[in-house]
Amino acid sequence: MLPQSTLSSALVAAIMITLPANAAPQLMPKRSAVELSLPAQLRLADTAVDRYQLLPKDEDFIFDFNKAEIPFANRKTFPALTGYGTSMSVSALPACSMSFLHLHPRATELFALTSGHVVTDMVPEGNVTDSNGKQRVITTELYAGMMTLFPAGSFHTQVNPDCVPANFSAALTAEDFGISMVADQTFSLPDDVVAATFGQSIAGEDIDRVRDAIPGATLIRVEECLKKCNIQKRQV
Ligand SMILES: *[C@@H]1O[C@H](CO)[C@@H](O)[C@H](O)[C@H]1NC(C)=O
Ligand SMILES: *[C@@H]1O[C@H](CO)[C@@H](O)[C@H](O)[C@H]1NC(C)=O
């Protein structure tokens, strides 16, 4: 058994060692509250009323799609929408272009056309079949004033087959909707997994060939349409 004095000095030493660590969290909130981003502060606000103090200017409630670097109003680019579970995109699909096959992991998208013409294809979740028992693919043809929806997680793509841009507004049911590129991400898997996934119909160098051929871009140009419209192919 340790003598009493040794025990108490050990205790003192233990307190000495733990004290700075205990003291640190008391200082942390003050320092880190300032370092937190505005969306983070909004998320931590004690009440919805308190949140308004973090957005004192009326301009805090405006997002200008005309000036925005990226045409997405989400929690990061438009902090005022933090906590409301929505986000928005207002943009144009250029003439003769197609958005690469993608999905939003956390949001259903309402896609409304305000001008032009767009054809959409959407693959719902597994087990949604057509009358032949095959995976159902839902195709829509939209003109100004028409809308479709892409449920969260559904693969989808939009094609503008015309010679003029198609303007659209898209509302999403999450502040941070996220985007996954179906082909890109599938081919990021190891070769043997890709080969097995495609029933060994593709192997070895062919996998790399396909991998390299996948455009990294979110938008691709539709060749036939470019010819029809006499538009030069350029990077979009
Ligand atoms: C989905 O389809 C598979 C294969 O046809 C079947 O075994 C499964 O029961 C289906 N699941 C549901 C939820 O319908
Ligand atoms: C499409 O949007 C752009 C940018 O906001 C605008 O200048 C243009 O007039 C719109 N086109 C049509 C046909 O509404």
From TrEMBL:
Keywords: Manganese, Metal-binding, Secreted, Signal
Pfam family, one: Cupin_1
Domain spans labelled Cupin type-1: 52-208
Signal peptide extent: 1-23
Locations listed in the record: Secreted
GO terms for MF: manganese ion binding
GO cellular component: extracellular region
Family stated for the protein in its record: Belongs to the germin family.
Name this protein carries in UniProt: Cupin type-1 domain-containing protein
